[in-house]
Amino acid sequence: MTDPIADFLTRIRNAYSAGKKVVEVPASKMKLALTKILCEKGYILSYKLVEDGKFNTIKIALKYHPQTKTPAVKAIDRVSRPGLRRYTDVENMPRVLNGLGIAIISTSKGIITDKEARELNVGGEVICYVY
Question: pTM of the predicted model, to two decimals?
C-alpha cells in the first residue's frame, strides 16, 4: 500500500456511504491522531484501539443525524499525497467552507486543525479537508 492515510480516509468515506455503524482500520500513530481530531470535532461518535497480538486496529463508531440518518461527514478529501506534497504557512492557511469545515495539518507541534495552527502560528503539511 503506497498511501495508508488515503486508505484510512477512503474506508471512512465508504462506510458512511454504505450506512455502516462501525468501521475498522489498521492502526498507526498518524491514523490514531486523525481519528482523535475527528472525534473531538464531532465528525465521528467514538473510537477504540483494539490490540490483538501483532496487529492493532482502530474501531470507529460513525455518527449520523438521529432523525434523517444523514452522515455527519459530507466529504473527506485527501490533499497532500505521496506524489505531490502540499505545504502551507500561517498566512496561506486554508479555510474549508469559510470555517464550517476543518483542515487537518501535520506540523512540528503535532497533528492539529487549521484553527489551532493559526493560534500556534505554525504551518505544515495539509493532510485532508473534512466537512
Answer: 0.94
